[in-house]
Amino acid sequence: MDRVRNLLEQIQSRLEELNKAERKVAEVILLNPQQATRFSIAALAQAASVSEPTVNRFCRSFGVSGYPELKLQLAQSLASGAAYVSRAVEADDNPEAYTQKIFGSAIASLDSACQALDPNLISRAVDLLIQARQIHFFGSAPRPR
């Protein structure tokens, strides 16, 4: 599955451009994607306080033919490791919960970046580095307090 086109990431990135009703559907999905895969269309509509046709419009706005296909793509997103896309640290999270969320988010970001890499461009960069006469690395450390 192409991680760049991951459904959960698409929903998260388009959240602000959705209309009010569709945003309610998105928020229910992002709040608990695993549970959303088990909802019927009626249950999702009820959880989001919208109508079933609104859920169908939401599905079509993400390029899927209907709710069954949306649930399938949502499950594929979860299986590909995108479960942490929307897991924000909450004020009442305990250290274990926020540690898992932070590391999970970092892992998902790294995986997404890795999947987006073009192997041909990496090969070209390696070839250029091999041919270089000199390679310089620069960095800076934070000042001690």
How would you sum up this structure in a few lines?
With 145 residues, the protein is mostly helical. Helices cover 62% and strands 0% of the residues. The protein is built from eight helices and no strands.
Name the descriptors.
0% strand; 145 residues; 62% helix; Arc Repressor Mutant, subunit A; mainly alpha; single chain; 8 helices
Describe the structure.
This protein has 145 residues and is mainly alpha-helical. It has a single domain (3-126), classed as Arc Repressor Mutant, subunit A. The protein is 62% helix and 0% strand. It contains eight helices and no strands. Helix 2 (20-31) crosses helix 5 and helix 4 (41-48) crosses helix 5 (52-61). The model has no long low-confidence stretch (mean pLDDT 85).
Oligomer type: single chain
CATH fold type: Arc Repressor Mutant, subunit A
CATH homologous superfamily annotation: Winged helix-like DNA-binding domain superfamily/Winged helix DNA-binding domain
Which descriptor suits the 3D outline?
A: extended
Q: What percent of residues adopt helix (DSSP H or I)? A: 55-70%
**CATH structural architecture:** Orthogonal Bundle
- Secondary-structure element order, N to C: HHHHHHHH
Largest sheet: none
Give unreliable regions as ranges: none
CA radius of gyration is: 20 Å
User: How far apart are the termini?
Assistant: 46 Å
- Number of beta-strand segments: 0
The CATH class name reads Mainly Alpha
Query: What share of the residues does DSSP label as strand, in percent?
Result: under 5%
Total number of distinct structural domains: 1
What structural category do the secondary elements indicate?
A: mainly alpha
| Overall pLDDT | 85
Count of DSSP helices?
8
